[in-house]
Amino acid sequence: MNRVVVTGLGVVSPIGQTVGNYWSGLVAGQSGLAPLELSGDLQPGTKLVGQVKAFDPAAHFEPQQISILDRVSQFAVVAARQALAQSGLTLTEALAERTAAIVGTGSGGHSTVDDSFHRLYAGGATRLNPFTIPRAMISAAASQVSLFCGTKGPAYVVASACASATHAIGQAFHLVRSGGATCAISGGAEASITFGALKGWEAMRIMAPDACRPFSRDRKGMVIGEGAAMLVLETLEHAQARGAEILAEIVGFGMSADSKHQTAPDPGGMARAMNAALADASLPPDAFDYVNAHGTGTVANDEAETTALHKSFGEHARRLAVSSTKSMVGHSLGAAGALELLAVVNSLRDGVVHPTIGYLGGDPACDLDYVPNEARQMPIRAAISNSFAFGGLNAVLAARKFAR
Q1: Could you tell me which residues come within 8 angstroms of residue 400 by beta carbon, excluding any fewer than 6 positions away?
Q2: Cβ(21)–Cβ(303) under 8 Å?
Q3: CB within 8 A of 54, min separation 6: which ones?
């Protein structure tokens, strides 16, 4: 079994389109939640979103490339290129065949679907752009990452709603650890801030009107976000042989299914996934110092996650620092786990935990240390990143500070 390390990171987010800007924004407690900017005459009731603004496809792609790339694939490719560049990895023909591209997304080319249906049903169009299907298909992001980065190993998309990116990175971790691949470009991407998608989320009545306040009293729900984050994973042996800078080590991955309810969270299922990640990492609960929480800001999810942390970590739960990246960038659905694991990698490297912003004070059902409103300098030996999706689909990654 190979040790698996992270050597490259890339990101497109509401608070930064480079890793440096994203991480400094998180540490500073910068909110990327802002009024919705949506072109067209159809406007949803949602006013607050975590939108990637000032993203210019022309700065990254040729015009003919843009015509075949939905926004979700654009995000994925830009983040993957950043990660590959930071890693310093050169994909020779032999290495390309040993490099995977595994991407998580919940919706795929949602903008293409929304625009196409509007043209058909409202605009009376009789035919669509010939690239409609290649742009919209759920697997497009992985295909485009493979095409633009030159990988020739396993390439596919994982779609498990809000756990998609964590499942994808976990699959990449397993593949590299087992020797099925030497390297992997893996993460998540989502771009579903469209009229149709937002109307669907509004119907669930879980959207916050003013702010995302995970684990706080008076929290009122979640805020939809978008973006992408990608990581380069490789075997420790390969990374050391080429003198790569090692950012962190992935040590465990756990999964579970609630088998309870389509939308209601279950602490038991969450705890089973965390327990599986700790067991896979061969580390006891008290070896962990930080949890990047799923932390959506809904009443039910935050309470359930807190209960699950108590179940998995016992008395040590009260000594954990727990924070929610979603408080600053919103819930980017299939990309969320990757954006959050990227934060974990930086926390391990820098010894800093970013805050949970918007925190107004404790809720009796949420009684842990949520790093309220200000970042915290602290040594971090190991951390987990939680993703819990509708349908009871749970995925947890464990990482630790790299030590030879």
Answers
A1: 248, 249, 251, 281, 283, 287, 348, 381, 382, 383
A2: no
A3: none
331 flagged as catalytic? yes
Catalytic residue among 60, 238, 294, 354: 294
Walk me through the domains of the chain, giving residue ranges and CATH numbers: 4-241 (3.40.47.10), 253-400 (3.40.47.10)
Q: How many CA atoms lie within 13 A of 383 on its CB side?
A: 29
Q: List the catalytic residue out of 60, 110, 162, 167.
A: 162
Is 162 catalytic? The answer is yes
For residue range 9-45, list pLDDT tens digits in order: 999 999 999 999 999 999 999 999 999 998 887 888 8
- pTM (2 decimals)? 0.97
User: In this structure, are residues 301 and 352 in contact, taking their beta carbons and an 8 Å threshold?
Assistant: no
Using alpha carbons only, what angle is made at residue 165 by residues 328 and 28, rounded to the nearest 5 degrees?
A: 20
70 falls in which pLDDT band (50, 70, 90)?
Answer: very high
Render pLDDT for 104-129 as a digit per residue (tens, 0 to 9).
Answer: 999 999 899 998 988 899 888 889 98
Q: Give the span between the Cα atoms of 91 and 225, in whole angstroms.
A: 32
pLDDT at 40: 81
Average pLDDT for 343-349? 98
